[in-house]
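Subject: Sanity check before I submit

Could someone independently write out the structure tokens for this chain? I want to compare against mine line by line before I put it in a report. The sequence has 178 residues.
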Amino acid sequence: MQNHPVSRLLKSVDSKQCARSAIALGSNIGESQAILAAALETLAETPGISLEAVSNFYLTKAVGPPQPDYLNGCAILQVEIVPQLLLETLLAIEQKFGRVRQERWGPRTLDLDLLLFDDLILNTPNLQIPHPRMRDRAFVLVPLAEIAPDWVEPVSGCAIKELLKQVDCSEVHLLVGN
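---
Independent answer below. Compare away.
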């Protein structure tokens, strides 16, 4: 992690005043590694958000219609904002990087998913925490287990490292030169 392109952005924060949140990042259009690094930099510069940890990036097969492989990663944030505002911030950053929502699971310049927010369980029309499909996705669990293996997903009651054992990781490959 110390050689990660965004390691200089990581901040030490007082977690007593913050909520801990996990997000997933993905890109398969454009210069994906540069896009993900720039998105992390944007997050780090956003008031009320501090980067605590960033995983390596992984090449993964796309889910959905035929399209290029993805570059995926995860980040742990310390946030001083409520989940809905964090979601709105993530969506605004996606738009900043040219995200256009045309088809479900289609290709994208940037995808930012809110996975976990402390041990909160939330189910609203536009936001579900934990992310409803994270437990089934190796491209989420592999990078998340790298940076938060002991975080307990509150619906299943299982640690991320245990959830990882339940998925096929054969299509998730560490990006060389992370």
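---
OP: Matches mine. For the report I'm noting this point. The chain is about 25% helix and 25% strand.
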